[in-house]
Write a structure and sequence with these properties.
By secondary structure, the protein is mainly α. The protein has helices at residues 2-17, 23-27, 32-36, 83-90, 96-112, 117-125, 127-147, 154-162, 172-187; strands at residues 51-53, 70-71, 79-81. The protein has one domain (2-187). It has a 3-stranded mixed β-sheet with strand order 1-3-2. It is globular.
């Protein structure tokens, strides 16, 4: 177990050394349709049986965030959502913002459900893989938000890319540029 933790920390450290020239930096140079061509359609449906409340114990585990939704496929077949969102789902008339987040998480689930644990491990060890997987899911969420006249918080998500939520996958300004381009293209 100590070896796995060491290798994980080493991987994150090596990625940090390459931070400035990372994949998000490259993506920030793409505009409009060029950016959209990166993504393929992923059919997504929300399965209420796969939604669970985030365990309280997650707040003590690094990289598991109890305040945001998470997908651990193929380790677990469930989507974990914060207590407030779970309560919203149980109300029978969930807020559209909650549903938008579920579209994001179920996109991850659909992309990972038939893949090996090694594919999921890439999420932890490869910034490029992590960025592309998140951008796929973000694209689905953005489309739902646009169809339902909801806003998209580019600033918040760019902070996620630059912080611990997405394990320092990108610089803030690069993530912001890509996310703004994606959101503008979805709204066209």
């Amino acid at each position: 177990m100590k070896t796995i933790v060491f290798l994980f920390v080493l991987s994150i450290s090596l990625q940090a050394l390459q931070y400035k020239q990372g994949p998000m930096h490259q993506l920030a140079k793409l505009y409009g349709e060029e950016l959209l061509q990166i993504f393929q359609e992923v059919p997504v449906s929300i399965d209420p049986e796969r939604i669970k409340k985030t365990p309280d114990s997650w707040k003590y585990i690094p990289f598991l965030h109890s305040e945001i939704a998470s997908t651990l496929t193929p380790i677990s077949p469930f989507i974990y959502i914060p207590h407030a969102m779970f309560k919203d789902i149980q109300s029978g008339q969930p807020d559209l913002n909650t549903i938008a987040v579920l579209y994001h998480e179920f996109t991850h689930y659909e992309r990972y459900k038939n893949r090996s644990a090694g594919y999921a491990l890439q999420y932890l060890t490869s910034r490029q893989h992590r960025i592309f997987e998140e951008l796929y899911a973000i694209r689905t969420e953005m489309e739902f938000r646009d169809e339902n006249n909801l806003s998209y918080d580019v600033d918040r998500k760019a902070k996620h890319f630059a912080g611990s939520v997405y394990m320092w996958a990108s610089e803030y300004k690069d993530a912001e540029a890509v996310l703004k381009t994606m959101w503008e293209s979805v709204q066209d």
